[in-house]
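Memo to structure team: turn this sequence into structure tokens by end of day. - J.P.
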Amino acid sequence: MFGLRSDGKKIKNIDPIMKLSPHIMPHRNDAMVMSVYDIDCTGMDEYIFKRRKDGVRVNYMDVTVTAMMRVMASRPRLNRFIMNGRVFRRNDIQLAFTIKKALKDGADETTVKFTFKGTETLDDIKAMIDKEVIANSKVSAVNDTDKLAKFFTIVPNFMIKFMVGTVKFLDKHGMLPRAILNLSPFHTSVFLTNMKSIKMNYVLHHIYNFGTTSMFMSMGKEKYVPIVLDPEAKTIGVKKIFQLGCTIDERICDGLYFGNSIREFQRLMENPSILDTPLEAKVEDLR
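Reply from structure team:
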């Protein structure tokens, strides 16, 4: 209560406009900004081919998650969230995504959540992702997030409404137990969906009013597009492009900061060998 939470710390010294924004736009769907980014696949494909020659199977998702976490660690304002009219800096860098247990219409889904230091290499993050995907892809697998969801749905519908309403109230006032925050996929830095894995284009997904997630990213399938190779010579060629859809809560940082962060993200995506070297230290949000 009173601006205290177990998953973040209230930012006191903040620009007046940023401080006012959560009161002008009290809900995340008031403040959603959606955009699409094109990533040149040349650098990723060369990197992936080189690693496979060495016996390591890296994919686009490994690169995307590592680049995203690296930017979160070096550009910490992206890791803020809004709750009850206040701006908080999140204690951890976290990511959640959903796993389909089989590529069938009736197959079950499960959600996994990771906590990162932000200094990890691509191999570190790949190992973490592979471990969780293997463990949770089994039809019989039930993780703690699944158990929490089941707990909320074993009662009649009117009780579900009451229980969810209670959770929202506790969350709003900073009283939600950390055990629930740690399991909830709605309390994470980024929620990622890999539409590429089912051969679909990116989506511009909404961010949830429930919880604290301030960013939703969607990986789409790659495609070949005409592109200007040399503006002076006016030559046109074809390049393989990987597209990502991004939805962000605009109340967490200004447009310049977000734009510079996205440029850094694109640089890492197109030069993934940088991610083989660990980040020296996570940058702290000191405001």
